Amino acid sequence: NRLNAYIQGPIFGGLSGRVQMSHLFDRHFDGGLPKHDFSGYTLVDAMVFYQTDNLGRFTLAVQNLLNKTYVTYFSQTATFVTNRDYVAGRGRAITLRWQGSF
């Protein structure tokens, strides 16, 4: 089970923003091995967009804003996972993007 929520809107001029949250709830499987239950987590992302008249659109985004340490759903629940497949989720990542038309 998952809950996704966001708020998005203009800030001023050509500047707008978005903050989003994704929460994955704990999950316990009846009759399954307890080691394959899922411990949920919450991730927060933020983006700022700037639209110019001549240069296009710039986006600055931060994924996993709070730098939450988590283990992915697949790694926690798949019964055939080995140490090679058991991976943590991605830490904080910052992206700068430019989009233009010509």
Description:
The protein has one helix at residues 73-77, and strands at 2-12, 15-24, 41-51, 57-63, 93-99. The protein has 102 residues and is mainly beta. Strands 1-2-3-4-5 form a five-stranded antiparallel sheet, with no helix packed on it. β1 (2-12) and β2 form a beta hairpin.
What are the main properties of this structure?
five-stranded antiparallel beta sheet, 1 helix, 45% strand
Beta-strand percent range: over 45%
Strand order within the widest sheet? 1-2-3-4-5
* Computed structural class: mainly beta
Assembly state here? Answer: single chain
Biggest beta sheet attributes = 5 strands, antiparallel
What is the count of β-strands? 5
Helix tally equals 1
Mean pLDDT, all residues: 90
If you compute it from the alpha carbons, what radius of gyration comes out, rounded to the nearest whole angstrom? Answer: 18 Å
Any low-confidence stretches, pLDDT <50, length ≥5?
none
Helicity, as a percent range:
under 10%
Distance, first to last CA: 43 Å
**Silhouette:** elongated
Order of helices and strands: EEEEHE
Could you give the topology of this structure?
Elements (H helix, E strand, L loop, with lengths): L1 E11 L2 E10 L16 E11 L5 E7 L9 H5 L15 E7 L3
Antiparallel strand pairs: 1-2, 2-3, 3-4, 4-5
